[in-house]
TrEMBL record:
It is an enzyme of class 3 (hydrolase). Its EC number is 3.1.-.-. CRISPR (clustered regularly interspaced short palindromic repeat), is an adaptive immune system that provides protection against mobile genetic elements (viruses, transposable elements and conjugative plasmids). CRISPR clusters contain spacers, sequences complementary to antecedent mobile elements, and target invading nucleic acids. CRISPR clusters are transcribed and processed into CRISPR RNA (crRNA). Acts as a dsDNA endonuclease. Involved in the integration of spacer DNA into the CRISPR cassette. It comes from Heyndrickxia vini. This is CRISPR-associated endonuclease Cas1. One of its GO terms (molecular function) is endonuclease activity. Keywords: Antiviral defense, DNA-binding, Endonuclease, Hydrolase, Magnesium, Manganese, Metal-binding, Nuclease. NCBIfam families: cas1, cas1_DVULG.
Amino acid sequence: MKKLLNTLFINQPDVYLALDGDNIILLKDDEKLGRLPLHNLEAVISFGYTGASPALMGYCAERNISLVFFTMNGRFLARVIGESRGNVVLRKKQYRVSDDELKSAKIARNFIVGKIYNNKWMIERMTRDYPMRVDVTQFKEVSHYLSSIILDVRECEDLERLRGLEGQAAISYNKLFNQMILQQKDSFYFHTRSRRPPLDNVNAMLSFAYTLLANDMASALEGVGLDAYVGFLHRDRPGRISLALDVMEELRGVYADRFVLSLINKKIINKDDFLKKENGAVIMSDESRKKFLTAWQNKKQEKITHPYLNEKISWGLVPHAQALLLARYLRGDLDEYPPFLWK
């Protein structure tokens, strides 16, 4: 299993990234803010892109260190990718399957089964842990409904219908999301998903979490030799990491949503951590983003037992495990892609 290394997050604007030997140097107005060895890093993620030296980009590309740039609001700008080390046979198989909608649907439905199953068990856990604070009857009804959708998804061989079933499940799950917010309810509430831009505190946090998860998933897929831009459920679109978005579907709720809920319910993030712009967009402050990223890194270190591999790994390695299982399926080593089923 891959060793989980550190991710360096640069959250301060106007920082230039440079190389000094085997170290990354952080510079601002010719002042050296920090110096860190690169051999301990698997990724460098910079918010508020100012620039990076060609030497640093080349070093990271050669050593498969992910170098990613976002705006301060968390909008993706670019990833530095080196020479493709993917197995050419594996990638050709991936492309052939992606071009075949029936074969794509048979893989994609497992991503959706994983997503709905995990959301169902999030709902079940809420009724078990907080029976006096949620509408248990409503939660149980939605749980049973999600079980019925899973059966339909398992038999589905049409991508368009699969998206429709996923949408129905998402609507039912989202109706309960606000009840899962147990603290700070005056400042944190969820009525509907708003993306570009996020229009409330919860959506701002969800968007940020999904952005981080998508990047982790893309790096994991590239690491096993797959093309993160060629998906099965999400079809080709220039600049979109379609396969990463595919595989992260099963982790959205159980990984990202639960993480956001924990920050709210444990009062790690509060109402003062957000800014509202003139166009109604809500963004996280620099300080709140630091708290978010620190908690995200701590979450990645937590140990779980992988439900398929039956091996104890950290949460941060789950994307790598799923990428490896997908590669094994495409190579013909597995009869079916096993989604991450959390309970």
